[in-house]
Amino acid sequence: MIEAVWPYLPFIFGLALTGAFAGLTAGLLGVGGGVVTVPALSYVLTLLGYDQSIVMHVAVATSLAVIVPTGWRSALAHNARGAVDHKVLRLWGPPIVLTSLAGGLMAGWFSSDALRIIFGATALLIALNIVMPAQQALMGRLSASPLAHRISAAVIGYISSLMGIGGGSLSVPTLTAFGSPIHTAVGTSSALGVMLALPGMIGFIISGWFAVGTPPFSLGFVNLPAFALVGLIASLLAPVGAALAHRLPGRGLKFVFAAYLIIIGARMLWTSIFG
Hints:
Helices cover 79% and strands 1% of the residues. The chain is mostly helical. It has one domain.
């Protein structure tokens, strides 16, 4: 029995570390942990020798599945502190659900490099919205426009589902620029991440239903063993990250998030351009 499990111990250990970091990140910054989960899963699946043409699809789809319990636990923790804006949920929810489902269904139409360039450039631009008052003022004038909110939600839902992230990398700075306090933006983003990840995951299950070469015990492009291990650990540690977020000053958390976006955005652009 031990001999049979031994070759998979590095894979299991890697998934456990991925789940721990993803959960802490989800609660602390309101992101679903996909920016950690997707590259980690694609790497371990590559090491195990799975088809390169479907490795990213499996990683993205499984990441979205992981975000559902992680985001749910994080959202409950933030909601208990009154940091979830239910008015924003009602306004943003419908377009996020529709466009994230569309993204999951259409994921196979895009190359990985194209998705990295789109997200990398967008992440850098949104980081500027945090640190440049002029851009914040411009978006602040649109905060009363329901149409501006719905368009923002639709774009975030579509891009995020294609990248396997919960949307916090995009929704937190957008909500902040629209005038939400940083802690409320983080908490609301956690709830939005669930509304985004669930339909996105369903789209990937449908689009990968007849895919060849997926790992054992996969439902479409969603790998169930990876989902179970990473999702369990991440969901347990998401409330720890949420508690830590509420101990940090709002201004400090805002600039931590900006630095986080710059690093992730630059890394994605570098990978897509230079390999």
